[in-house]
């Protein structure tokens, strides 16, 4: 059984989805606009959200953005418009699927099932946590106290390398050769600059990156 949040300003649409979802044994919670959806997600967890794009108060894209700041719940977006721009914008926000109205309720529920199963499989991905710092190697994601951190590609490379080698003293030479490659033509200042940026991105958890004077750095959590 899935817990589904259905968000649409049209009660007819909500009831139609609820009818088919209930028939398949799923639990449905309804929201009439984006603002209500965000508030509900603050208090409850769901396996998936089915959300309309065009709604009063707060549109689906904005609601999705706000919810993603709170929780990582799969989202299937509904829209009466099938423009490529809307789809691209939605996928850039991280939605999982996009269905254009009018739609087949049976097909919708098949898509819901596929998304939830895929999401459940991703729950087994390689993830480590240190206090409020979450590192998702598979998804190449970093969260600080639940907030996703945006880093440059090289920052991600450097950070993941250090975390995977946590507790090990890493010399400057080893970090540069393993992260940048043997053909790197920069100098130690490039490494130091990236460490500085990395510490800024990690906020309170920059404490995990220890400087080893005359040697290099070490990621340590104890």
UniProtKB/TrEMBL annotation:
Domain Response regulatory: 3-116
Modification 4-aspartylphosphate occurs at: 52
GO biological process, one term: regulation of DNA-templated transcription
Domain OmpR/PhoB-type intervals: 125-221
GO CC list: cytosol; protein-DNA complex
Keywords per UniProt: DNA-binding, Phosphoprotein, Transcription, Transcription regulation, Two-component regulatory system
InterPro entries tied to this protein: CheY-like_superfamily (IPR011006), OmpR/PhoB-type_DNA-bd (IPR001867), Sig_transdc_resp-reg_C-effctor (IPR016032), Sig_transdc_resp-reg_receiver (IPR001789), WalR-like (IPR039420), WH-like_DNA-bd_sf (IPR036388)
A UniProt-annotated Pfam family: Response_reg
DNA-binding region: 125-221
CDD domains: REC_OmpR (cd17574), trans_reg_C (cd00383)
Presence of the UniProt keyword Thylakoid in the record: no
A GO molecular-function annotation: phosphorelay response regulator activity
PROSITE patterns (UniProt xref): OMPR_PHOB (PS51755), RESPONSE_REGULATORY (PS50110)
Function: May play the central regulatory role in sporulation. It may be an element of the effector pathway responsible for the activation of sporulation genes in response to nutritional stress. Spo0A may act in concert with spo0H (a sigma factor) to control the expression of some genes that are critical to the sporulation process.
Record PANTHER family: DNA-BINDING DUAL MASTER TRANSCRIPTIONAL REGULATOR RPAA, REGULATOR OF RPOS
Protein name: Stage 0 sporulation protein A homolog
Source species of the chain: Zongyangia hominis
């Amino acid at each position: 059984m899935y817990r589904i949040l259905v968000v649409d300003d049209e009660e007819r649409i909500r009831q139609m989805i609820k009818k088919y979802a209930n028939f398949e044994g799923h639990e449905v919670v309804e929201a009439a606009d984006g603002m209500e959806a965000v508030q509900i997600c603050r208090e409850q967890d769901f396996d998936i959200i089915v959300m309309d794009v065009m709604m009063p108060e707060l549109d689906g894209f904005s609601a999705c953005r706000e919810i993603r700041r709170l929780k990582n719940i799969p989202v299937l977006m509904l829209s009466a418009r099938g423009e490529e721009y809307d789809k691209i914008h939605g996928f850039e926000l991280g939605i999982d699927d996009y269905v254009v109205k009018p739609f087949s309720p049976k097909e919708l529920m098949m898509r819901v099932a596929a998304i939830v199963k895929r999401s459940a499989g991703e729950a087994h991905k390689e993830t480590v946590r240190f206090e409020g710092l979450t590192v998702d190697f598979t998804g190449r994601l970093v969260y600080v106290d639940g907030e996703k951190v945006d880093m440059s590609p090289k920052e991600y490379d450097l950070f993941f390398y250090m975390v995977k080698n946590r507790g090990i003293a890493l010399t400057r030479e080893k970090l540069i050769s393993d992260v940048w490659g043997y053909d790197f033509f920069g100098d130690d200042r490039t490494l130091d600059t990236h460490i500085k940026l990395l510490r800024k991105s990690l906020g309170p958890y920059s404490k995990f990156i220890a400087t080893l004077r005359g040697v290099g750095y070490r990621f340590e959590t104890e």
